[in-house]
Amino acid sequence: MNIFRLAGDLLHLGSIFILIARLQQTRSCAGISFKTQCLYLIVFATRYLDVFLGVISLYNTLMKLFFLASAGYIVYLMRSPLKASYDKALDSFRVEFLLGGAAIFALVFPHKYTLLEILWSFSIYLEAVAIIPQLFQMTRTGEADNITSHYVFALGGYRALYLINWIYRYYTEDDYVDYISWVAGVVQTALYGDFFYIYFTRVLKGKTFKLPV
C-alpha cells in the first residue's frame, strides 16, 4: 500500500458514491450507460472470486465486497425501479465485441494458466474498455449533466493514480512486474483523454459538459 494506491482507491469509492447518490436523488438513470454498469459488475465478479477462498487482509476483503455489492445494487436500480428513465436507443454500443476481445486476450495472454488467473486477466482487460459504452453514449448526446461528469472523472482519475502507483512500486519494490495491468491501465487511461480535456476546460470552470460542435 502507498499513498497513490490509497488515493486511487478512495477516488474509485468516490465515483461509486457519486453515481449512487445521483441515481437516488434524481430517481433517474438518464445519461448513464446500463451496459457500462453491467460490464463493471462482470469485472468485479470475475476478479474478486478469491474473496470467498480466504481473507488476505480486512481492507482488501472489505473493498472487494463493497465493489461487488455496489455494482450489483447499481445494476438493480437501473434494471428495476429506474428502468423507465433508461434510454436503450442511446446506449447502443455493441458490448459483445468488448467481452469477446477481453476473453480472447485472457486466454492468449493470461497471468497464469489457471482458472482464477484467466478470470483475473479477463477482468483486467475488460475493465480497460468497460467505460467505452458510457463515453459512446455521451458522444451521441453531445453533453452530460455535471454529476455524471464528476462520476466519469473520478473513474478516470482513479486509473490515472493507479498508473502512478505502478511506477512508484516499480522503483521501490524488488522484482515488481505486472505487464497485464500496466498495458490495460495505459489503454484505459488513454480512453479518458478527450473527456479529461473537456472536463478541465468546461466543467471545472462552472460550465456544463458539452462536446465541441
TrEMBL record:
GO molecular function, one term: ER retention sequence binding
Nucleus recorded as keyword: no
Keyword Protein transport listed: yes
Major localisation: endoplasmic reticulum
Pfam families linked: ER_lumen_recept (PF00810)
Keywords from the UniProt entry: Endoplasmic reticulum, ER-Golgi transport, Membrane, Protein transport, Receptor, Transmembrane, Transmembrane helix, Transport
Membrane topology per record: Multi-pass membrane protein
GO cellular component, one term: endoplasmic reticulum membrane
Subcellular localization(s) per the UniProt record: Endoplasmic reticulum membrane
Residues spanning the membrane: 65-82, 94-112, 118-136, 148-168, 180-200
GO biological process, any: protein retention in ER lumen
Membership in a protein family: Belongs to the ERD2 family.
Name of the featured protein: Endoplasmic reticulum retention protein
Natural source organism: Coemansia brasiliensis
